[in-house]
């Protein structure tokens, strides 16, 4: 298998995962000796079927796997931020209070950063709204603002757009690309959407049974990505779908 | 509207002339038996109370109800006014309210503190939850003899009894409220690196607030119930004392005034908490209405 084909950048790795093993008591390992590096500013998308260990990997990087048995080495930057599939806004706190929740700066500065982040995601003026008053897409934008307001060195995203409708999802892709151009965190995004992975990431990693089954760089790394050059996109897409499993076809990719 | 209807009818004539008339005006629905309640009748809520008052008035006016058993409504009203004017009612009411408020305050404080200790730590749960559940199973009145032995028959005993009755619903509902906070919010707090203090003030307490307020509704009514009991044990002031005194002198009308006062107090207090609930849970109200 042609893993590491794209050549890993060994300079300034923001994330280093070595021989990571995780299992949930039932015996079978969910992660089975996984190695992964993410360079500073690099966007890595993780694809995989359910049970492939992609969420377990993300939770391990986020430090959310308190009661999970395992071993291995995980090095992440100090300032890590997580975007979940649900926006995970506290319903009892107004939008701005949600954005600045846990912000390290003194309150006044934190609120200023929060307002700026809200403006960046196009929600200036909604600071005093309750989360329940916002649409699903808006809530997810607030959650992005919450992550960006603390200028993370590593952004972990667990199917961040999985619960959104197709149109909103495309808009969010544009927004995310735009935000990343300005903030440059390293990103690890778990997704089940092959196209989303190709369109957004610099590198796509397919997990299978707790190991890396395939690893590919995406065709273009500048703004003129796939739409301008559909050829390489289609080839990569076919290759990734192949790696995801025999019963994978484009129509069923959402169930992965 | 009119245009649309003619259009439909015309279309019907063209395609299926026989059916056009049936679709026009008759509201045909599948037959489903209604199991839910019908729409509420306006002002119906008060009719039960009005009926009761009417029966009481009629019974007293016709002499069917002996005034020694139950005073006439007008006697109760005039007695109430007399008691209010000579200051006895207000004085006793103040004492009663003071007791209830004091007991409520201590009970709420104890209930919330214990709920936090037992809700947020496994050790706290192991040590506290058991005894509290046992206390919950013992009727408050059954504790009264012991409390009298410990605290005497003064104010202390009264406030302690009320507080003991109050802290249970506060504890149960706050504990339940904070234990049912979505685990996803706990994860969020972890990824945001909240310290314990901020976790409690920003996530736990607001998350448990709906539960706490429900507990508070039970607690407020409970404090008044406990008030009735403790005030009839060797009191020297308070609504219960006033009623107990009236029993000695056979003043039924004063007893009924006391009952009415208790009723109004309980109802007003409950409404006040509900108002507080609506104010404090605006974020939820946007969902509800």
TrEMBL record, chain A:
Keywords, ordered alphabetically: ATP-binding, Cell membrane, Membrane, Nucleotide-binding, Translocase, Transport
Stored Pfam families: ABC_tran (PF00005)
Highest taxon listed in the record's lineage: Bacteria
Keyword field contains Cell membrane: yes
InterPro entries: AAA+_ATPase (IPR003593), ABC_transporter-like_ATP-bd (IPR003439), ABC_transporter-like_CS (IPR017871), ABC_transporter_ATP-bind (IPR050166), P-loop_NTPase (IPR027417)
GO molecular function, one term: ATP hydrolysis activity
Descriptive protein name: Sulfonate transport system ATP-binding protein
The species this protein was found in: Promicromonospora thailandica
Automatic annotation (TrEMBL), chain B:
One example of a Gene Ontology biological process annotation: alkanesulfonate transmembrane transport
Residues covered by the ABC transmembrane type-1 domain: 93-273
InterPro entries assigned to the protein according to its UniProt record, in alphabetical order: MetI-like, MetI-like_sf
Keyword Coiled coil annotated: no
UniProt membrane topology term: Multi-pass membrane protein
Name by which UniProt lists this protein: Sulfonate transport system permease protein
SUPFAM superfamilies given in the database record: MetI-like
Location (main, coarse): membrane
Regions that span the bilayer: 41-65, 103-124, 136-153, 159-178, 199-229, 249-269
Pfam families xrefs: BPD_transp_1 (PF00528)
Recorded GO CC terms: plasma membrane
UniProt keyword Ribonucleoprotein present: no
Family of this protein: Belongs to the binding-protein-dependent transport system permease family.
Protein localization: Cell membrane
UniProt keywords, alphabetically: Cell membrane, Membrane, Transmembrane, Transmembrane helix, Transport
Top-level lineage group: Bacteria
């Amino acid at each position: 298998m042609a893993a590491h084909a794209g050549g890993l950048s060994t300079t300034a790795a923001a994330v280093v995962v070595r021989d990571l093993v995780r299992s949930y008591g039932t015996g079978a390992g969910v992660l089975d000796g996984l190695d992964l590096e993410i360079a500073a500013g690099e966007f890595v998308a993780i694809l995989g079927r359910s049970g492939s260990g992609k969420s377990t990997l993300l939770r391990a990087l986020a430090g959310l796997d308190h009661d999970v048995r395992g071993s291995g080495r995980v090095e992440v930057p100090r300032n890590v931020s997580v975007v979940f599939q649900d926006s995970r806004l506290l319903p009892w706190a107004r939008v701005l209070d949600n954005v600045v929740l846990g912000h390290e700066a003194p309150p006044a500065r934190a609120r200023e950063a929060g307002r700026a982040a809200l403006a960046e995601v196009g929600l200036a003026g909604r600071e005093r709204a309750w989360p329940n008053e916002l649409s699903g897409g808006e809530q997810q934008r607030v959650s992005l603002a919450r992550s960006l307001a603390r200028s993370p060195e590593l952004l972990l995203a667990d199917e961040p757009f999985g619960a959104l409708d197709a149109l909103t999802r495309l808009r969010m892709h544009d927004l995310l690309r735009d935000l990343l151009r300005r903030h440059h965190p390293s990103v690890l995004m778990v997704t089940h959407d092959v196209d989303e992975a190709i369109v957004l990431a610099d590198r796509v990693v397919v997990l299978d049974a707790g190991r890396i089954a395939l690893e590919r760089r995406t065709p273009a790394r500048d703004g003129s990505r796939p739409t301008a050059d559909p050829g390489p996109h289609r080839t990569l897409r076919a290759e990734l779908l192949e790696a995801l499993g025999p019963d994978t076809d484009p129509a069923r990719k959402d169930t992965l | 509207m009119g245009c649309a209807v003619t259009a439909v009818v015309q279309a019907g004539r063209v395609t299926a002339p026989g059916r056009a008339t049936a679709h026009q005006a008759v509201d045909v629905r599948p037959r489903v038996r209604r199991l839910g309640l019908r729409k509420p009748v306006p002002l119906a809520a008060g009719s039960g109370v009005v009926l009761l008052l009417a029966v009481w008035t009629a019974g007293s006016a016709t002499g069917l109800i002996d005034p020694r058993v139950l005073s006439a409504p007008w006697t109760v009203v005039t007695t109430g006014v007399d008691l209010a004017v000579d200051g006895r009612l207000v004085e006793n009411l103040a004492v009663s309210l003071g007791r209830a408020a004091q007991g409520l305050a201590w009970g709420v404080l104890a209930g919330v503190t214990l709920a936090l200790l037992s809700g947020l730590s496994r050790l706290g749960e192991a040590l506290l939850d058991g005894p509290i559940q046992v206390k919950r199973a013992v009727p408050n009145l059954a504790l009264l003899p012991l409390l009298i032995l410990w605290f005497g028959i003064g104010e202390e005993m009264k406030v302690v009894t009320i507080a003991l009755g109050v802290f249970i619903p506060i504890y149960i509902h706050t504990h339940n409220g904070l234990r049912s906070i979505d685990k996803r919010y706990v994860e969020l707090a972890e990824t945001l690196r909240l310290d314990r203090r901020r976790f409690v003030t920003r996530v736990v307490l607001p998350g448990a607030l709906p539960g706490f307020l429900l507990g508070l509704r039970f607690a407020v009514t409970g404090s008044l119930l406990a008030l009735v009991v403790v005030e009839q044990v060797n009191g020297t002031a308070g609504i219960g004392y006033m009623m107990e005194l009236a029993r000695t002198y056979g003043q039924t009308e004063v007893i009924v005034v006391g009952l009415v006062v208790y009723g109004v107090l309980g109802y007003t207090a409950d409404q006040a908490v509900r108002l507080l609930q609506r104010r404090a849970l605006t974020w939820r109200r946007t969902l509800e209405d």
